[in-house]
Design a protein that fits this description.
This protein is mostly helical and about 325 residues long. It has helices at about 5-20, 25-45, 60-75, 80-100, 105-110, 130-135, 145-160, 160-165, 195-210, 235-250, 260-275, 280-285, 290-300, 300-310, 330-335; strands at about 175, 180-185, 190-195.
Length: about 325
């Protein structure tokens, strides 16, 4: 069967252009790939065009808008996810302008589709007491409970993204003092994050129990399932939510209604900020490229805002109460004014 022009250019885009010309990481390319998998599903299920019949001439602006609407109505995606999928499609059709300019006008119409305006959401994070309560929930008398404690405590202690934790191997852990972990972040950027003593003890026990310190296990997934495969993002989310539900039963006030794995990262950043750690160091721990990204935590920290206002406060309001407060006959006071 002869391949379609869409399949030819999409393969070139994902396998050559993104990794070699743009230098995108494997995880970023996977995210781009997922957008096209959804697009192909949409074309087959809604427009009845199978993948082996999908040509560039069949893809137009109306088709892309219908796909974006389908994401929100059928897949229940939010505006942010819709915008991310659209950004991927914009990138692909910018690439196509130079690869196959025969249909340039249609590509430009697709690129004219605007992103939806999104409202900023409240940052959900746990207090110190909330984190303490959460990390008390795993049953450390069981092997799985000890693994979950090592996983969740390392996620919090390093402020790591879920994928960063999933991709860790024992070779990234250095237990000698000062203990550190080498994390590979977005764009394959490496950062070294120090480990606290309590975290090191939990991690060392876990590594010893599963023989992960041995030379032959250096490249084995640090956290894995019963099939010896590294955990998935949904798997880590399931583990977290299991203990979130348990913690809520103990003290609902300490656990926000909406929490995700990223909330542990937010929690670490907020706790560092509240402890007076400079934003530059927080940026390096989290692996942000720009300090402007890290500043979102300073803007979200209402306690620090209040303390800053209190430090700068000058008492310009007179202590003496207004004379009308001491006058029982308000009407009389107004007449004499």
């Amino acid at each position: 069967m002869k391949p379609t022009d869409f399949s030819k250019y999409l393969t070139d885009y994902l396998a050559r252009y993104l990794p070699h010309e743009r230098g995108y990481s494997h995880n970023t390319i996977k995210a781009y790939r997922d957008t096209f998998m959804l697009f192909i599903i949409f074309m087959e299920s809604i427009l009845k065009i199978k993948a082996n019949k999908l040509y560039l001439k069949t893809i137009n602006k109306n088709c892309i808008i219908a796909f974006l609407d389908w994401l929100q109505t059928e897949r229940k995606c939010g505006d942010t996810t819709r915008n991310l999928r659209l950004a991927v499609l914009h990138s692909f059709f910018r690439f196509m302008q130079y690869q196959n300019p025969d249909n340039l006008y249609e590509y430009q119409k697709i690129m004219s589709i605007k992103s939806k305006k999104t409202t900023s959401t409240t940052m959900n994070y746990l207090s110190i007491n909330g984190i303490t309560l959460l990390l008390k929930q795993p049953d450390v008398s069981s092997e799985k409970g000890r693994r979950d404690l090592a996983l969740l405590s390392l996620m919090y202690d390093t402020g790591s993204r879920v994928q960063e934790i999933i991709d860790l191997t024992p070779s990234a852990i250095k237990l000698d003092k000062p203990s550190t972990v080498q994390i590979t972040g977005k764009g394959n950027k490496m950062r070294i994050v120090p480990l606290l003593e309590d975290q090191t003890k939990v991690l060392k026990c876990y590594l010893d129990e599963h023989h992960l310190i041995e030379a032959q296990a250096r490249m084995h997934p640090l956290f894995y399932n019963s099939r010896q495969e590294k955990l998935t993002r949904p798997g880590v989310t399931y583990i977290l939510m299991k203990y979130v539900d348990k913690a809520k039963k103990k003290n609902r006030q300490l656990i926000p209604d909406k929490l995700s794995c990223h909330s542990l990262r937010h929690s670490k950043a907020m706790h560092l900020l509240q402890a007076g750690v400079n934003l530059v160091y927080i940026r390096d721990i989290l692996g942000h490229v720009s300090i402007q990204t890290t500043e979102v935590y300073a803007r979200a920290d209402s306690r620090q805002k209040r303390e800053a206002i209190e430090k700068a406060y000058i008492d310009v309001v007179p202590n003496k109460a207004p004379m009308w407060e001491n006058n029982n006959n308000l009407l009389g006071w107004l007449k004499s004014f």
